[in-house]
Amino acid sequence: MASAGYEEAFFYAKGEYQEHLVSKVSQHLDLQSSPEAVRLVDLGGGTGNFTQALVDFNCLKQRPLCVDPFQEMLDRAVGHPSVDTCCRGAVEFSQEADRRYDRVLLKEMVHHVPEEQLSVLYAGLARQLTPGGVVLTCTRPQEVDYPLFAAARQVRLTYGCPLL
Predict the structure, then answer these.
(1) Cα separations (Å) of 98 from 88, 94, 128, 130?
(2) pTM (2 decimals)?
(3) Which CATH superfamily, name and number, covers 6-159?
(4) What are the residue ranges spanned by the domains of the chain?
(5) pLDDT digit string, tens, across residues 55-73
(6) d(CA 86, CA 96)
(7) CB 107 within 8 A of CB 138
(8) Alpha carbons 30 and 106: distance in angstroms, whole number
(9) What is the pLDDT of residues 128-145, one digit of tens each?
(10) Is the pLDDT of residue 163 over 80?
(11) Which residues have CB under 8 Å from 97's CB, separation 6+?
């Protein structure tokens, strides 16, 4: 996994697109109802860029946990002042019985989980949730029928994003 340049890619950079996603994620996870009480896990959170954005836009008051299987990505996440990190794969993390969270975000990462492990992943996350907790999976379509500009194609080639 190449972490250099990851946050500068269109789909991960600061700006209107990220602000739009923060708004939608905040809405679907109901983060504004009581941000001081919400404990969030960003599963597959990479460099913590989006995780920190949730804090920056006042969606969270408690330190969120950014979980990623690549230490190289998490090494960049420690530069975000309000994000804790954990180096684990998603399925492995979901099986840790002592974990408890109110919200879990799987943003643009579920395609990395083998299909035969999806039920194990989601069952484990359900066990970790507090009563009334929410798991949100968001992803871009696997196949798109519109032309992509060169930088978007490069994200796909560099990071393995299934855009085409």
Answers:
(1) 15, 10, 8, 12
(2) 0.80
(3) Vaccinia Virus protein VP39 (3.40.50.150)
(4) 6-159
(5) 998 878 899 999 999 999 9
(6) 12
(7) yes
(8) 15
(9) 999 999 999 998 766 656
(10) no
(11) 127
